[in-house]
Amino acid sequence: MTTAWRATVLTLFPEMFPGPLGVSLAGKALASGLWALEARDIRDSATDKHRSVDDTPAGGGPGMVLRADVLAAAIDAAEISPDRPRLLMSPRGRPLTQSMVVEFAAGPGPLIVCGRFEGIDQRVIEARNLEEVSVGDYVLSGGEIAAMALIDACVRLLPGVMGKQTSGVDESFSEGLLEYPQFTRPQEFEGRGIPEILISGDHAKVAAWRRAEAEALTRTRRPDLWAARGGQKGTKSTTDG
Ligand code: SAH
């Protein structure tokens, strides 16, 4: 049987996995074989007697750089089939978006290289065709948490992972919009009620209300997203008053 969606992670700290990916939705799906996770130790590909994986940066400067030869050997040893994306978590990379997540989730699952220290030797990025992906404009101390974010976002979209198959359809970014506000019981909380429309039972009105809220939120909080979808005129929102 061919395995389902699979993430292969190259890291100096394989003991960090599955970590948070081993609980809740992702963890249950992992245990039941809906996806597979392989965390491989880059250090296993070191060749000298100290098993060193890094060295000082050429040209000087602080910190250490992961060696191209060791990392290339680790990538080769993982024997990744050519149809799988080869990613490097990196603050210089293409910012991860929900549409990229949808694409990664639809494929066979990526190889993900996690950097540490000052980063990795540029030559292995080119020689092994690594696609750099960032989780945001800030610097983490290693690629592992970034890899977990990417994997988690993919796994929840895999068939059978989320309770209701529809729950991925409406949420933030699915149409270039942020999600509308959610409410549940109790009916009243510290003097605050639930918007009347949501308890009206009128599905069309509920849908229209949610749409208007999502648009208003996106317009005010994320003008970048709003502009990217070309805006939308003539929709009156209840949060605008
Ligand atoms: N000196 C590098 C940062 C190295 S941080 C620079 O200035 O670009 C060490 C490792 O953490 C990186 O190699 C990368 O794998 C990971 N990392 C840090 N921030 C990240 C981010 N925003 N997105 C994805 N990976 C990140």
TrEMBL record:
GO MF entry, a single one = tRNA (guanine(37)-N1)-methyltransferase activity
Main location group: cytoplasm
Annotated GO biological processes are: tRNA N1-guanine methylation
Q: Where does S-adenosyl-L-methionine bind?
A: 115, 135-140
- What InterPro entries does the record tag this protein with? Alpha/beta_knot_MTases (IPR029028), tRNA_m1G_MeTrfase_C_sf (IPR023148), tRNA_m1G_MeTrfase_TrmD (IPR002649), tRNA_m1G_MTases_N (IPR029026), tRNA_MeTrfase_TRMD/TRM10 (IPR016009)
Compartment(s) of residence: Cytoplasm
Q: Name one Pfam family in it.
A: tRNA_m1G_MT
Catalyzed reaction equations: guanosine(37) in tRNA + S-adenosyl-L-methionine = N(1)-methylguanosine(37) in tRNA + S-adenosyl-L-homocysteine + H(+)
Q: Write out the function statement from the record.
A: Specifically methylates guanosine-37 in various tRNAs.
Q: How does it assemble?
A: Homodimer.
Q: What is this protein called?
A: tRNA (guanine-N(1)-)-methyltransferase
The organism is Bradyrhizobium retamae
User: What is the gene name?
Assistant: trmD
